[in-house]
């Protein structure tokens, strides 16, 4: 009888060790495209699944560059990521009117938790109005590689200048470059608000010299960046919920 109990204990300990040794499973995929309307994007969750290294989390990251009247660029990645804490972050790098750049990142630690499918669940386009007298027109386009024959479009109310830049993205299975042109209210080379990393994606922004000169002039005038960042740290949220239930 005692031998049976010893074997049973060893079996239970082995099952517990196996459960603890199991690494996190995450959705895996890369999605890059140009769309007329980002609300009509296809399913962002791919069919692949990967097993993470010990201590890694699941991640899902999406970047959108929107030029009113033209295409919208979407770059998205899902998979495992190391050395991160559980959180959700939304950044509006460049707000409307004119060119819009936004990003969303989710780090989570339950199996297959990086399963968001719809862009509309975290972003809704704002309606902008054109001025009654249209004086500013800018070449407008978003294209992979290089823009050719960008149409000259009237700018919405609130924009003050034209933007032209090259955005380079790498990491998370993405290696892509975009050329972006359009109306903006932000001076200089700041479409991405000088943010160089979103999730596993690294970014660089390169602009013509005149835009760089605008940026230096704006900096000397102590201008501020119109960046909106919303972050929800899930651990803190769960702690607050526990305190509410306790009291």
From TrEMBL:
Leader sequence residues: 1-21
Record keywords, A-Z: Cell membrane, Glycoprotein, Membrane, Signal
Gene3D superfamilies linked: CD59 (2.10.60.10)
Record InterPro entries: Fert-Immune_med_protein, LY6_UPA_recep-like, Snake_toxin-like_sf
Coiled-coil boundaries: none
The keyword Nucleotide-binding is annotated on this UniProt entry: no
UPAR/Ly6 domain location: 47-115, 135-209
Chief location of this protein within or outside the cell: membrane
PANTHER family, per the entry: CD177 ANTIGEN, TESTIS-EXPRESSED PROTEIN 101
Name of this chain's protein: Testis expressed 101
Native source species: Chinchilla lanigera
